[in-house]
Amino acid sequence: MRLVLVGPPGAGKGTQAQFVAAHMSVPQISTGDIFRANVSQGTPLGKQAKEYMDAGDLVPDEVTIAMVRDRLGEPDANRGFLLDGFPRTVPQAVELDDILADMGTKLDVVVELIVDDDEVVRRLSGRRTCRSCGHIWHVDFDPPSNEGVCDNCGGELFQRDDDKPATIRHRLEVYAEQTAPLVGYYGERGILVGVDATGPVDDVTERALAALRRFDHP
Predict the structure, then answer these.
(1) Domain boundaries in the chain?
(2) What is the 3-state secondary structure (H, E, C) of the chain?
(3) I need a labelling partner for 164 at 20 to 30 A (CA). Which of 8, 28, 141, 216 fits?
(4) Mean pLDDT of all residues in the chain?
(5) Which residues are catalytic?
(6) Tell me, which fold does domain 2-26+79-213 have in CATH?
(7) What are 179-216's pLDDT values in tens digits?
């Protein structure tokens, strides 16, 4: 099965990607992992990407797309894959269609994790990061024994700028502007399925797998 996972920041994409890919016995391919692999291995594409990243600029689409093309051409992706973090825009989705067409295949399904903005803000703004060991706690879901103090190492806990409500709402606006049109793009092709991403992780995984069963094929 060849699938793409989309959803706003804080929807739990990384967690669900891991579980769903394992269940489907396909590699989970995230753009973050592809970037890190190319940069650490010093590939030509990695060197190009690093120049932009070091300058604080966004890596251009053509570099990202070339990395995705290379990764999808690896043997473990022959029987299927789960893409997490790509495509983010409709032009990237069109490029992905072209890559897969060149390989003689196409996407089977796109899973959209659905969660409302207030829930995203609650999830992300509750995070507290330890300055010493980097462990992330959550004031609601995984609170430390003593407020502001890491249970693991006694370090000070703080709220990263990325986890402040105003920043989160801005990220949601960017998502709505750039990535949400993907929902329309894939919906028109009849390969989009929405999954309620609220509640316990296991429940969300079960909903996602149930939704995917009707798209599964030998």
Answers:
(1) 2-26+79-213
(2) CEEEEECCCCCCHHHHHHHHHHHHCCCEEEHHHHHHHHHHHCCHHHHHHHHHHHCCCCCCHHHHHHHHHHHHCCHHHCCCEEEECCCCCHHHHHHHHHHHHHCCCCCCEEEEEECCHHHHHHHHHCEEEECCCCCEEECCCECCCECCECCCCCCEEECCHHHCHHHHHHHHHHHHHHCHHHHHHHHHCCCEEEEECCCCHHHHHHHHHHHHHCCCCC
(3) 28
(4) 91
(5) 13, 88, 127, 160, 171
(6) Rossmann fold (3.40.50)
(7) 889 999 999 999 999 999 998 889 999 999 999 988 77
